[in-house]
TrEMBL record:
Protein family per UniProt: Belongs to the sigma-70 factor family. ECF subfamily.
Residues covered by region (Disordered): 176-200
Keyword vocabulary terms for this entry: Sigma factor, Transcription, Transcription regulation
Domain of life: Bacteria
Keyword field contains Membrane: no
Any one Pfam family match given in the protein's UniProt record, by short name: Sigma70_r2
UniProt name for this protein: RNA polymerase sigma factor
Sequence ranges assigned to domain RNA polymerase sigma factor 70 region 4 type in this UniProt record: 129-178
InterPro entries to which the protein is assigned, alphabetical: RNA_pol_sigma-70-like, RNA_pol_sigma-70_dom, RNA_pol_sigma70_r2, RNA_pol_sigma70_r4_t2, RNA_pol_sigma_r2, RNA_pol_sigma_r3/r4-like, WH-like_DNA-bd_sf
Domain RNA polymerase sigma-70 region, residue spans: 34-100
Length: 200
């Protein structure tokens, strides 16, 4: 499994489209090639969003199972973006399932982000990452999808399973909350950077 995609974007895009058409026809070798080309960077990106390696492995596997079943729905465009939307949606589903299972088992007190999470947030997102800790999870998901991951409003709606209008509304609410969170510890300067963020 390669960790990063090879450079050579035009050729890769063409090759990816050819591979996906072959996968749609049931070609397992094409799926294996697609996996070798994309699984590495998908794994890295999923790991940045989820600290549980078991969940990451399951999501990666589910992503390529979905590709196997849905390759015929792929249309022209960057295959990497299409794969990431699938992977990100599988990750959201996995986290929701995990949260439901934990609620059934017990109702733990709300846990503060660990020191490691805070450090990683600072490295990955800077002040924005710190500010994200202070807004509600549903708003945080929208900002991560539209601003951090660079998904369009439509892709974010698909990823999170909510209407596009809800994505836009939550993005506006999130920006308001981020602007008001400048008084939270560690968030000095957040509003200036995030007030300019707009959903695609």
């Amino acid at each position: 499994m390669r960790l990063f995609r090879p450079v050579g974007a035009d050729r890769d895009r063409h090759d990816d489209a050819v591979l996906l058409r072959a996968v749609a026809r049931g070609d397992q070798a094409a799926l294996a090639t697609l996996y070798d080309r994309h699984a590495g960077w998908l794994h890295v990106r999923l790991t940045r969003r989820c600290g549980d390696p078991e969940i990451v492995r399951e999501v990666l596997q589910d992503t390529f199972v979905t590709v196997w079943r849905s390759a015929a729905t792929y249309r022209a465009g960057a295959a990497g973006g299409w794969l990431w939307v699938i992977a990100a949606r599988r990750l959201v589903d996995a986290k929701r399932a995990q949260a439901r299972a934990e609620r059934v088992a017990y109702e733990p007190p709300a846990a503060a982000p660990s020191a490691e999470d805070r450090v990683l947030a600072g490295l990955e997102y800077g002040d924005v990452g710190t500010a994200l800790e202070w807004i509600s999870p549903e708003l945080r998901e929208v900002l991560r999808a539209t601003v951090v991951d660079g998904l369009t409003t439509r892709e974010a709606a698909l990823l999170l399973g909510v209407p596009e209008g809800t994505i836009k509304t939550r993005a506006m609410r999130a920006r308001r909350e981020l602007r008001s969170s400048t008084s939270a510890p560690g968030c000095t300067g957040c509003s200036a950077r995030t007030a300019q963020a707009r959903p695609p």
